[in-house]
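Notebook entry, cofactor series.
This is the third protein in the set we're modelling with a bound small molecule. For this one the ligand is nicotinamide-adenine-dinucleotide. I'm keeping the input format identical across the series so the outputs can be compared line by line later. Sequence and SMILES below, as received.
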Amino acid sequence: MDTPVTVVIIGAGNRGLRTYAPYAKRFPERMKIVAAAEPDAARRARIAQEYDLPPERTFRTAQELFAQPRMADMAFICTQDGDHVEHACLAMERGYDLLLEKPVSASVSACKYLLERAQTLGCSVTVCHVLRYAPFYQKAKELAASGALGRIIAIQASENVGYWHMAHSYVRGNWRRADETSPMILAKCCHDMDILIWLADSPCKMVSSMGDTAFFRSDNAPAGAPGHCLDGCPVKFRCPYDAEKIYLTDALTGFYVNGAGWMQNAVTPDPTREGVYQALKAGPYGRCVFRCDNNVVDHQSLCAEMENGISVSFLLSGFNQRNTRTLRIMGTLGDVYGNLDEETLVYTPFGKVPQVIRMDVQETISGHGGGDYRMLDEMFAARAQGTRTATDLRRSLDGHFMAMAAEHSRLAGGQAVDVETFVAGFPAQNT
Ligand SMILES: NC(=O)c1ccc[n+]([C@@H]2O[C@H](COP(=O)([O-])OP(=O)(O)OC[C@H]3O[C@@H](n4cnc5c(N)ncnc54)[C@H](O)[C@@H]3O)[C@@H](O)[C@H]2O)c1
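Returned structure with ligand:
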C-alpha cells in the first residue's frame, strides 16, 4: 500500500474514536482520518484535536457530512445499531466503501435492502465481525478445515458475559432494550453466530432457542433498594452490581485502580473520578440493576442444525466472573477446545497426546483477541488487492439471520425455525 486509505469516522464513540481511530496513529502509512461526524461536542472536539481535523472537516451528524461531496475512500460507520442502515445508505450513495459496525440491523428486510443497495452501487462493505480475525478462531478454523479433526460432527460454544459487562451494557446501558437497539442474541452474539457458521462451513438450517430475563427485574430487588445505588442502598456492600463498585472501586473494573476505560467513557463525557461519581448519582449507569427499563435476556440457549448436518449448541449467559468465550469442536478423529481469554486451544487427535496451542497475541495493539486491528489489516490488504474480505456484507448476513431466527424461536417458546423459510418471509425494504 503506497498511500494511506482515507477515512471518515461516523460516530466518535467507543468504537469510532477509541478502537478504530488509533489505528491511523499506529499505521499512518495505511490509514488517514480526514473527517468525522459526531453530535457530542466533547467527542467531536477530541477527534478533531487528536487527528488534526480542521473545522470544515468536523460535522455534527452523519447526515451533514454525507451532504458534502465525497472526501475519502471509506466511511467507518460506528454509530448505534438503529442508525447503521441509514448512515450506510447515505455513505454508499456518496460513493464510499464501508467499514460497518455490527449488528447491521435488527430487521431482516433492512439487511436484505442494504445488501441490494451495496450490490447496485458497487460498494464494498466490511462488517466488524472482528472475531474471525482473532488468532484463536483462525487456528480453530484451520484445524477444522484441514481435516485434522476428521469429519466435524458437533460444535459447542458459549458467550460468557462478565457480570459487570452484563450490568453495564445490557441492564443499565445502550443495549438494554431490544426494541431500541437489538435483541441480545443479535447485539452480542451475531459474532458467535458468524463464527459458528464459519467453523461449520455451512449456514444454519434449523434453530431452536430459549431464554429470558431471569434476574435483572424488579421482583428480584432487595427490600428497600432505591432507584440509584448512591441513594443509600441498604445492600450496597454485598451487591456485586453496585454501580460505585463497578465504575469506581472494584480492582478489575473500577476507576481508582485502572483509570478511565471504555465503561467510564460511556458513563460520562467527563471520565474523571468526580465526573464518574456525579454521573452515577443521577445518570442511567448509577441505577439499581433491578430497577432499570431493560428488556433483553440475561441468558439464552440455542440448538441448531447446520445445512451440512453439523449440530451446534450455544449458551449466552450474563453471570460470569470472567468475560470470555469458550469453544469445543468435535470431529470423528479428534477434538479441540479452548477459551478465547486464555488464548489457548487444546487439540487432541483421538488416542494421542493433547497438543496445547498458545496464540501469539499482543493485547496492547488491539482488542477482541487481536481481532480488531487484524480486521483492519486484512481489510486494507484486500482493498489493495481488489479482493473480498472475510466478513463482507453477504457473508456476514448469514450469522445475523441465524440470530434473528433464534430470537423468533425464543419468542415462540423455543419452536424450531427453518432459517431459509424465515428469511424468505421478509421483502428487501428499508424498514
Ligand atoms: N464489533 C464489535 O465487536 C463491537 C463492539 C462493541 C460495539 N459494537 C457496535 O459498535 C457500534 C457503536 O458502539 P459504541 O460502543 O462505539 O457506541 P457509542 O455510543 O460509544 O458511539 C456511537 C456514537 O455515535 C454518535 N452518533 C449518534 N448519532 C449520530 C449521527 N447522526 N451522526 C454521527 N454520529 C452519531 C454518538 O454520539 C456516539 O458518540 C454499535 O452498533 C455497537 O453495537 C461493535
